[in-house]
Amino acid sequence: MSGQEVRSGFIQACMKSDDDKGAKAILQTGAPLNRRMQLCKHESKKCFGIKGPSSPNSGRRFSIKIAEARPSVRRALAATSIVPDLSVDEDDDNDNEELIEDEGLDENHGDDPSPNENEGNADGDGMNHNENGDTESDEEGLNENLDAVYNDLIEEPSEKVPSNLYDPRVWDSLDDKWRDLLAVKGPDYTLDSPKDRLNKRFTSGLYTRHIHNGETSDRIWLEYCKEIDKAFCFCCKLFKKKPMITQLANEGYNDWSHVGVRLNEHEVSKAYIHNMATWIELQLRLEKDRTIDKSFQDHIIKEKEHWRKLLRMLISIVKYLAKYNLAFRGKNQRIDKENNGNFMGLVQMVAEHDKVVEEHLRRIQNKQIRYHYLSNVIQNELILMISSEIRGAIISRVREAKYFSVILDCTPDISHQEQMTLILRCMDVTVSPVKVDEYFIQFLNEDDTSGLGLFQELQMALTGLGLDIDNVRGQGYDNESNMKGHKQGVQSRLLDINPRAFYTPCACHSLNLTLCDIANCNIKAQDFFGVVQRIYSLFANSTKRWKILMDNLIGVTLKPLSTTRWESRVESIKAIQSQPLQIRQALLQLAENDKDTKIRSEAKSLAKYELEDFVFLLGMTIWYKILVTVNKVSKRLQEKDIPIDVAIELVNGLIISFRKYRETGFAEVMITAKTLAADLGVDPVFSEKQQIFRKKAF
Question: DSSP 3-state assignment of 113?
Fold first, then answer.
């Protein structure tokens, strides 16, 4: 890569927008570290509006006030390890602000100071980099290394994150991951420092070592902590294996009057040379990805990925069982036993096709692991976590819509515990066009089923969900007195607190109650539905009798009467109304072949005196017509997005159809009933009760 290409790539990367992508872009320019530093100095004034050093070969002694540069520049320079990762003040984004030079360069000193003088500062280069030696492999290795460092920062090297990675005071407690990161990034090169009581201070000139033959070299090991105003030896502080006498490797050195002498002495010490060699060796190994603990790190990464994939699979199994309302556990909880439940069974099935689960079960069977994450405790925990996330997403959507309606319904469960279902209805403003959605929230156990008890439970539920009861704009319940009562019901108590909570009774439930009252007020209707249930029970109570029925029927089979939804009884009548001849044939066959005299008598009675009765056939035709019409309206009323004006229109249309049916419908059903009677060979006449005439003695 040519110098012009590197320069162009670096400039384009640094001129990117003020976000974290700028730092990552610099890592991809392909230039080695020393080349990026030099380019930063050369192009600083041109690209960033800041002053650069006069010498193009000066090392890290930048005459730049980095803290006053643009935030994007500071992040970019910190990401390339050219300068320390200074904190970014988002409010300080003035690109035209004039930047000043480091105060250490404004002191009145010569160009070639003595190495023992603290305030001296020369313009020579302390880097001594050979640009001809920058091979293609070196550039690639360094870029890969910097990319790895950037990724490690994103993935958090360990759970114990230091407050300031460049603070030498925390280095003794760092783990190996953070040490590796520090070894790659190197020391934090501070460019300014406060003066002490003797008007002495740490300056950037100390980063350069002046040799007696006139040559200079960088002190890449020198670290300065501005918070405590002390200097440290980076490699000795980080890699020392035993206690060292020098303050540079322990609590830090701050005698700025004699710091030059101490630095020169430290550079020739045996411990320093050993620690510097350790640092350089670790850097090389990290660049080549060949550290001593590389195999252990690879193993840890593989284990982390193994457990992540396993947990994803277990969560998918939990979601599947919960979605279809299937039981999780069986008689035992052992993976290698029978009747261990749906959860364990699905884990075993997935293991036949997934290598991760297969390996996990192998470890369990070989007792290589103790925690297998398959117990009932983990299952319950996953269920609670998933349900909590789903409920949180629903509540967030309700809060975003602000206004909502509540729907309550109570029913006893199998353990005879009264449970109240809480449903929230709101507008989904996250989609376009906006639509209405209803969300089931939870079951509420109820001991007090009075209006006051149910209302207090509703209040506590909304408070627990973080919803304001004043934002309720609608309430819908069934027609029980404790719910709809205009004085003591739930709807009345809610209206007392929030008058805007408009109450709407369940239209479908109201229609069902109306239909129930219609049937119960007529003796003929009760007798008709009794016969329908008797026919179904006669065949359903025995598999042999049911086989006789199925041999005669084609398509539609008999169904029991619904005790709650009257409009659904149309399905029970449909089978008899569409196949009366086949059902009569099955009853006669049962009356001839069954060995039970009671069953023979019941079957013969239903065939002769019910199906062959014209009154029964006429009643079946009438009720089938009524229930078909009501069922259509009931299905529409159960839709969650039906407007109230449409619901009113449907109910009014149903009333009109009943009135019309009363006026002209009887003649129509008579024609249909006579057709059925003709197919069965029944006279279309109404049977009359025989009148009993008693003789009068007087």
Answer: coil
- How do residues 474-499 score in pLDDT, each as one tens digit? 998 888 888 888 888 899 999 999 99
The residue segments making up the domain with residue 464 are 386-505
Cβ pair 199, 108 in contact under 8 A: no
Instruction: Judge if 608 and 632 occupy the same domain.
Output: yes
Number of structural domains the chain divides into: 5
Among 46, 42, 95, residue whose Cα is nearest residue 72: 95
Give residue 347's identity as a one-letter amino acid code.
V
Q: Please indicate, yes or no, whether residues 152 and 263 belong to a single structural domain of this protein.
A: yes
End-to-end CA distance of the chain: 138
Asked if residue 464 and residue 368 are part of one domain, the reply reads no
Q: Are residues 422 and 545 in the same domain?
A: no
Please say which residue of 374, 398, 429 terminates a domain.
374
Other C-beta atoms closer than 10 Å to the C-beta of 493 total: 18
Rounded Cα–Cα distance for residues 682 and 202 (Å)? 118
Domain assignment present for 688:
no
pTM above 0.70, yes or no: no
Quote the tokens at residue 431. Answer: 């989609």
- Strands 230-233 and 404-412, sheet pairing: unpaired
pLDDT reported for residue 31: 40
How far from chain centre, in Å, is Cα 116?
62
One-letter amino acid at 663 equals E
Domain boundary among 252, 273, 290: 290
Burial class (CB in 10 A: 0-12, 13-18, 19+), 42: middle
Rg (CA), the chain: 44
* Residue type (1 letter), 71: P
| Residues 526-539 pLDDT 10s | 888 899 999 999 99
Do 620 and 671 belong together in one domain?
A: yes
CB 136 within 8 A of CB 94: no
- Is residue 44 domain-resident? yes
Clarify whether residues 593 and 669 are in a common domain: yes
Q: With DSSP H G I counted as helix, E B as strand and the rest as coil, what are the percentages for the chain, rounded to 5?
A: 55, 10, 40
Give the three-state DSSP class for 93.
coil
Measured in degrees and rounded to the nearest 5, phi and psi for residue 410 equal -115, 145
> Which uninterrupted H or E stretch holds 428?
strand 418-428
- Residue 329 pLDDT > 70, yes or no? yes
Give the position of tokens 């160009």. 111
Q: What is the mean pLDDT of residues 249-271?
A: 84
Torsion sign, CA atoms 657, 521, 637, 473: positive
Cα(343)–Cα(358) distance, integer angstroms: 15
Domain containing residue 429: CATH number: 3.30.420.40
Residue 612 lies in a domain: yes
Q: Is 591 within a domain?
A: yes
SS3 category, 442: strand
How far apart are the C-alpha atoms of 688 and 189, rounded to whole Å? 114
- Report whether pLDDT(694) > 60: yes
Closest CA to 260 of 187, 199, 185, 206: 206
Tens digit of each residue's pLDDT (9 = 90 or more) over 646-667: 988 999 999 999 898 888 888 8
Same domain for 330 and 193, yes or no, is no
Q: Are residues 261 and 213 in the same domain?
A: yes
In this structure, the dihedral spanned by the alpha carbons of residues 489, 495, 501 and 502, taken in order and rounded to 10 degrees, is 70
Q: How confident is the model at residue 449 (pLDDT cuts 50, 70, 90)?
A: confident
Cβ pair 129, 31 in contact under 8 A? no
Tokens describing residue 39: 């380019």
Nearest to 270 by CA among 230, 295, 304, 242: 242
Q: What is the pLDDT of residue 310?
A: 93
